[in-house]
Amino acid sequence: MRISTSQLYANGVNSMLSQQAKLSKTQLQVATGQKILTPSDDPVGSVRSLELTRAKEKTEQYERNGNLLDSRLRLEESIVSNSVDVLQRVRELSVQANNATQSNESRQSIAFELRQQLDNLLSYANTKDSSGHFIFAGYQEGSSPFSKTAGGYVYNGDDGQRQLQVGPARSLPDGDPGSEVFMNILNGNGKFQTGSNPANTGSAVIDAGSVTDLGQFNRETFTVRFTSSSQYEVLNAGGAVVSSAAYQDGGDISVGGMSVKIKGPAAAGDEFTIAPAQRQDLFSMVEALAVSLETPRNSNSGRALQNSEINTAISNIDQAMDHLINKQTGIGSRLQSLERQTDINAGASLQIAENLSLVNDLDYAEAISRFSQQQAALQAAQQAFSKVQGLSLFNYL
User: What is the pTM of this model?
Assistant: First the structure.
């Protein structure tokens, strides 16, 4: 077959260009450490690489969400723990104030510290995170969630609870709205509350009581009324007498599955109430105690009323502490769940990285060997072209 000079020349050039392209590609692979430079290099591998890259990005987002969640939950846990410490101090002050040796002046001094502790609680409830967001405001994180008004303490946030996705099928709340942490706490003993009529003239004091029969307990309201210093009757919410008995100082008075104790001398007309527990904010609980201690009591009946108010406050504080401890436990459970998910994410990240490496990473030993072969092939093509280019018919004449 006859081959023209131009065709021979073109074949030589194309051979060199092909070898140069192969060499350039291998050189780029070695420089980047990647064996897939374009989808056409390995269509199946390219698709797999894209899938793994997307999975890697999702896992990295889960990790970022997890770090944010961990930070916010640990801050919330710290605030709730500090609030429990404050309430523990409030309880200690309550017990101290309930001592018969306390004077009006000493109780007012205790009330002064109570108000300082109340300020601490309010400050904790209005805590901001590192981004300046109020952590107990729900979705209204740009505004202070708690404030004091003439009518009491007000929650300005909402009940929103943001969920952060920390795994393919796992989301966790990054906090709790203040309405669930500092508000809506059942007062009294958690089932019912007791109280003394401010108009009582005797010096008897009622305790917080307890539920003795859940089968009979149906959240009814009752009034214990003394018909004389030695006799009392129990009335229901409609004013009907449901029982009556001789008064025994410190003895049990049972009604509706509940039992209370009244201690001290009572007077005819004295009344004590037993009513269902109501939801209350913990700030008002401490405030009520401070107000009681700030009010001078100069009569036996006045001091008895104050003792009943202190007993009520102690029961309220116990309920508030239990409430916060339960919240603290819930936060701890979330942190444990997050820790387990973080370990799962770390394992997934490692597996994805290994698979990406198998798909994308270059085998340097093979690539360098191939580079040397391609370099030799290019040199051979260049030498062959040089010799062919030098051929002429005149060399044989």
Answer: 0.81
